[in-house]
Amino acid sequence: MTADMDDRTTADFYDFESVLSHEDRKILLKTRAFMRNEVAPLVNKSWEDGVFPRELIDRFRESGLVGLSFEEYGDRGPAAGHLLSGMMAMEMSRVDASVATFFGVHNGLAMYAIHSGGSQEQRDRWLPGMARMDTIGAFALTEPLGGSDVAAGMRTTARREGDVWVLDGAKRWIGNATFADHVVVWARDVEDDQVRGFVVDRGTEGFATEKIARKTSLRIVENADITLTGVRVPERDRLQNVDSFRDVAEVLRATRSGVAWQALGVMVGAYELALAYAKERQQFGRPLAGFQLVQDLLVRCLGNVTASWALLLQLARLQDSGVLEDEHSSLAKAYVTTRMREVVAWAREIFGGNGIDLDYDVARFFADAEAIYSFEGTREMNTLIVGKAITGESAFV
Fold first, then answer.
1. Which among 151, 196, 320, 355 has most CB atoms closer than 10 A?
2. Within a 10 A sphere around the Cβ of 273, how many other Cβ atoms?
């Protein structure tokens, strides 16, 4: 069973899509058709198997949807604004959050890190192939003993020996890492204690990945543990414009907004599934949709979707205006993911017992929401960022 996905989403109660330009809406509809035709038929089996369907890489490559934010790479015209990029993330997550995460890691975290932290020569060397998806990227920041505190507690080290850097340490939960061609690895320079960025190619001696198994969320994403044992990286592969963790934070500020859009997409997908099911499922001689308590749950879902969508529209305007601050992204991520958690629970509730059957899709949304709620900064950490901004007082430990 799938929700109706024609030219208008049933969750867009206030017609938010109308703010897009004609050209941007065409791209959004292209994304919608791609997810419906190429991704939706694969996701439940892939989720159950815990394997990313590699054939999607070729299909993404042919779609023309990759690299739209980087106008100088490819012949797609002006770069996509943050509103279109956000709507695309929403549209992908509306069908499957795992595939949206794969795309966000490659097209967002990895490519943006190289674009913002690399020299012109490095951008020209890596980004054209990544924009065509000839090569796949990953982003290695989180560590086995460091998540929220990775800025101050990064244990992976970089030691310079002439024109070569030697990396030692470990990373965890790294999406795409099992098959990525280029992995952006963040490490602490032992000389000055500052964080540096390095692009490590798959197959480099001393660089090993092991897929994390037995996950209950985002099972299609191939997260991996990475170990770095004396990995030698030439100076030319160090991101030349990265001087400290502030440069990493710049990447996270932009991509945290993308995660909020993903959370909106999960809400939209779960709500639409529940609405369609409530109209079809008969109980006591009439559709579930005809019962007051079911309508109450559906309206709560729609309210969360609508409030979150409105917040994210303004967030995109702040980004496109160049005035986005950390606290803006943090409030969006904390608020929207919390509302997402409510929506997927209410949507699953409407399905009753069928809500835990993967064939009805909503179980996948329910499970995947938990990972989105946690990554790119927990609710608690993002709350403290906003709290400091509005009070002027730091409550961090």
1. 196
2. 26
As its CATH architecture, domain 245-391 has Up-down Bundle (1.20)
Task: Give the number of residues written for the chain.
Answer: 397
Q: What is the pLDDT along the chain (397 residues), one digit of tens a residue?
A: 444 445 667 899 999 999 999 999 999 999 999 999 999 999 999 999 999 999 999 999 988 888 787 666 644 445 578 899 999 999 999 999 999 999 999 988 999 999 999 999 999 999 999 999 999 999 999 999 866 667 677 899 999 999 999 999 999 999 999 999 999 999 999 999 999 999 999 999 999 999 999 999 999 999 999 999 999 999 999 999 998 888 888 787 777 888 999 999 999 999 999 999 999 998 999 999 999 999 999 999 999 999 999 999 999 999 988 888 889 999 999 999 999 999 999 999 999 999 999 999 999 999 999 999 998 878 888 999 999 999 999 998 7
Task: Give residues with Cβ within 8 angstroms of 74, minimum separation 6.
Answer: 67, 128, 131, 132
Burial group, residue 22, by CB count within 10 angstroms (0-12, 13-18, 19+):
exposed
Distance (Å, whole) CA 172 – CA 142: 6
Distance separating alpha carbons of residues 223 and 218, to the nearest angstrom: 9
Per the structure block, which two tokens stand in for 124?
Answer: 């020209």
Considering the domain 137-237 in this protein, what is its CATH number? Answer: 2.40.110.10
Q: Residue ranges per domain, the chain?
A: 16-131, 137-237, 245-391
